[in-house]
Amino acid sequence: MDVDVLIVGGGPAGSYLARYLVSSGFDGDVLVIDKRGVVYAPVICGELLPSEGLLSDWIPRELHNVLLETMRSTLRREFIVNELRSLRLIVAGRDVGTFPFRTYLVDKGAMIKGAIEDAMSRGARVRFGVNAVRCGVKGGLYECLVHDRSGGEYVIRSRVLVGADAYPSVVDRSLGITGGFRPEDLIIATSARARGRYEEDEAVIVMDPGLAPGGFAWIFPRGDGLHNIGVGVRNNLAWRGADPLDHHMKFVREFGLEQVQRAVLMKTLPVGGLLNRYSLGGAYLIGDAVGSVIPTNGAGINPAMITAHLLGRALTGGGDYVRLMNTVFKPLMDRMVLFRRIGDPLLLSRDAMVRALGISKSYLSSAIYEATLSSMRISTLIKFALGYPLIRLVSSPWP
Ligand SMILES: Cc1cc2nc3c(=O)[nH]c(=O)nc-3n(C[C@H](O)[C@H](O)[C@H](O)COP(=O)(O)OP(=O)(O)OC[C@H]3O[C@@H](n4cnc5c(N)ncnc54)[C@H](O)[C@@H]3O)c2cc1C
Description:
FAD/NAD(P)-binding domain; binds flavin-adenine dinucleotide; alpha/beta; 3 domains; 9-stranded mixed sheet; 11 helices; globular; D-Amino Acid Oxidase, Chain A, domain 2
């Protein structure tokens, strides 16, 4: 089978790109394949998105404009299941503050389905239950060997190949586009639904290396009495002694949650910033496959769509993908990786976190809040720069 553009993966990144291309008069046929049998299920995600205005004062204007465009074209009213107003931060067992946090809890599966259906209605082809096994280049075209659900095996040839298949990407690994991430730049995150006595319009984030080493745990109310809960644990620590499921169950117990489903789902999330390359020839990486998750807060839905938007723009003649990524998105990603690395000693040691809290609770909580908003303000940078020697001090053993 021959196509102009083959998109491997129909998540936020792949579905957005397909929709963008067919809506922008792209000259060529677009095929999306996804190994899942149905559109985006099961959902392994906190399903939290910023409201339209939340980040306007915190991130650069050009990036914010792209964010708004991605939201306007995919986030319909009916996909929002709850509107949140505040964020409660719990650090090493202490309530450190409640902050403004206008966000949405969404039905992510329905949102992706909406984008896929939009893309299909405008001419994109989509095939579910089709798994890309490996890809290569032959005679100037990309060739992907795929397996389908009925046991079939065939090759899809394309002029342009897009890896939107999350991390680690089959497209990336088969073509050797990037060097991949180190284990400390990956999070293993769990996802479940639970009941509990928490406010219906408040997100709760728990930072406690005893519960979620190298990451955080969350309770996001869905507004129907159920909460979307989960724990993110750094991959290099996730399997030492306890495994991510043990951390998850400890969180459930300690926070008085009653899980309504038995199965806890898990997925890998890259938090090391953008990978060293985004493309090779006519092969491109977008979304988690290129490392677009915000390292300080784990948000990846809008960022995946932002990378897809920039690639869509490039493929429709609006510039060069690498240059667009480097000017519009990379500065924010580099800053957030820096913040994450500065904060790592606290995220990895409960003792250090408790000592830092003892020195200044308000300093620490405001720095965490601003990093959660992915703040590019100079004042936040100064806060982290000044906090760095303090963090080094509290994280080394007392003399
Ligand atoms: C537990 C958890 C909680 C999260 N919470 C949030 C949150 O609250 N807010 C937020 O913004 N982000 C959150 N994220 C991050 C967010 O879910 C991801 O960053 C986002 O979904 C990335 O989109 P994507 O399209 O790049 O990848 P994915 O959503 O992973 O989609 C990739 C698609 O590719 C398909 N695929 C993979 N390999 C192949 C293959 N070989 N062949 C064919 N198809 C393939 C998969 O089936 C999948 O449909 C969370 C992540 C996790 C794990």
